[in-house]
Amino acid sequence: xxxxxxxxxxxxxxxxxxxxxxxxxxxxxxxxxxxxxxxxxxxxxxxxxxxxxxxxxxxxxxxxxxxxxxxxxxxxxxxxxxxxxxxxxxxxxxxxxxxxxxxxxxxxxxxxxxxxxxxxxxxxxxxxxxxxxxxxxxxxxxxxxxxxxxxxxxxxxxxxxxxxxxxxxxxxxxxxxxxxxxxxxxxxxxxxxxxxxxxxxxxxxxxxxxxxxxxxxxxxxxxxxxxxxxxxxxxxxxxxxxxxxxxxxxxxxxxxxxxxxxxxxxxxxxxxxxxxxxxxxxxxxxxxxxxxxxxxxxxxxxxxxxxxxxxxxxxxxxxxxxxxxxxxxxxxxxxxxxxxxxxxxxxxxxxxxxxxxxxxxxxxxxxxxxxxxxxxxxxxxxxxxxxxxxxxxxxxxxxxxxxxxxxxxxxxxxxxxxxxxxxxxxxxxxxxxxxxxxxxxxxxxxxxxxxxxxxxxxxxxxxxxxxxxxxxxxxxxxxxxxxxxxxxxxxxxxxxxxxxxxxxxxxxxxxxxxxxxxx
Amino acid sequence: xxxxxxxxxxxxxxxxxxxxxxxxxxxxxxxxxxxxxxxxxxxxxxxxxxxxxxxxxxxxxxxxxxxxxxxxxxxxxxxxxxxxxxxxxxxxxxxxxxxxxxxxxxxxxxxxxxxxxxxxxxxxxxxxxxxxxxxxxxxxxxxxxxxxxxxxxxxxxxxxxxxxxxxxxxxxxxxxxxxxxxxxxxxxxxxxxxxxxx
Lengths: 519, 198
Known about the structure:
The structure holds two protein chains of two kinds.
Chain A: H1 23-28, H2 32-61, H3 70-104, H4 113-135, H5 145-175, H6 188-220, H7 229-236, H8 244-247, H9 250-264, H10 271-283, H11 302-310, H12 312-326, H13 335-357, H14 368-392, H15 394-397, H16 404-428, H17 435-439, H18 441-467, H19 509-518
Helix pairs in contact in A: 2-3, 2-4, 2-18, 3-4, 3-5, 3-14, 4-5, 5-6, 6-9, 6-10, 9-10, 9-12, 9-13, 9-14, 10-12, 11-13, 12-13, 13-14, 13-16, 14-16, 14-18, 16-18
Chain B: H1 2-7, H2 19-51, H3 66-89, H4 94-122, H5 130-161, H6 171-196
């Protein structure tokens, strides 16, 4: 099968499938369930490393005695920031979407399956090179020229791989929908993936452009400006600032919606508003233009401030939509529901903090601590949303329900970890207005370090919950209240996913069948 | 028996999702965003230099307009040719389709040659200034986009030669045409922003 193959006209016969781990299946597969598992597993493992790195950077900030040299601390800081976005949050959400989106739209396969496989392996190899290059003094502004070039090249590889994987997903959602599933009927996670993926496709290439300029200047140009050690990080730091950082967690909005509606056993109230809210959140998180290195006065512009303030509105709209859905419903006390709730809470805190950040009289933009706290909250929200997705779709991911006890433990850890990693740094951001806070900086940094460590433990518990998944193979509709098409195929999905599917007539096709019969 | 077969009505067009077209559109959008990202930096840097009262291009550097004009014209002719290929393959006119695809490839090679010639005569060192880095990064990025499109076009041409594309299913050629048009569109922006305004 070539990469340009299109959807098979007839689905392969459904056969009982097991999760195979033979080398051929792992290395040569274009199967979206296997690829999804690999993205998720790798992202969770790298996430542990990313938060440990964040904790170490925090330790360096405590007290006057420097734990690391200034260069080493800066390398760890930049690797932690870039890593948590491009090696953890985005791949985790991409992995879940790779697993779920073809199922949700009733597709037999992912579009361009071999390109999707190539994207994963390119990403993994680039991630390895990025980490190695950083460890040998090749980070942003690093002193070792060849290692620095290697890091920049690996960053280009990472962005390329993530873009290819995103294109495969978007193409699947656009072209391989089952008959009757118009765009307004796609499940929330697929919709959020469409919105988020579009944003990634518009902004990650701009990052590639920045990195390309740095690379060319550093390697061939002298360097004269872009490749200078002091300038490198400044050119790409917009990636982890607002509003761009919000773009990386957009799929969480859809996952949360699906978890609440299915486990609540109700249809999404005001579904149109929720889809609009996700779209508006996406539009307001476009941040590729906000590059302070090239536009030093961008923070004074009404557009940037307005976007950062306005993004609170779609977030509140979504929270209202979820609240209306859950009103009267009694979702079970499952880890998936808890993780989705934690994601909502952390994201709400983050957007409120982001709105405060742009208010000039508060003078928060001068504080590195405040932006670090904001970043931690958004990333933690992304990971909590990812955990909600993992636990919710664990029957499709592992063929078993995740270990609920460990899963609940991980939810508590991500709640505590996210709050502790972010909130103390937000408080510390006010230190230039309140002297007492400056005196408490060591204590606040210490709490943030504990929060980062707790986040690493939360991800460890998530891996544990998946590895110790047990019990009988769940039914197709594992929760018994499934609304969307992924719950119409086996757990885990069989090759080809589906046999014959009925024409979809609403956004909750699985709820329509019994209602039609009752009528 | 044969006559009865000829009397059959033509088969309806095959209903296939346009996977390759949509995928190519997304990939082209991403490639365009890379170039637009660099163009944004270029225009900002250039604006800052001009606002300070300096000249943008270093002394001794001249970027002639003839070559970029010829490149743009050639690319536009390639657009016509590749659309001719789509038109022909959609009507099972294979001879014209092959000719048009070959002509498009030829136009692509001509632009590559012209770009390298332009590099050789404009005497801009990459090591000397940010201008050199930006100019070579942007035009080189477009060159990479063009070469990628030509590779794609060549693959689709081989598929067409193998008989995979017909009037019922010619997404591959249409997708390659889309990629070609996309790189022409972004070259037009480059032509305007770099070669015309200098």
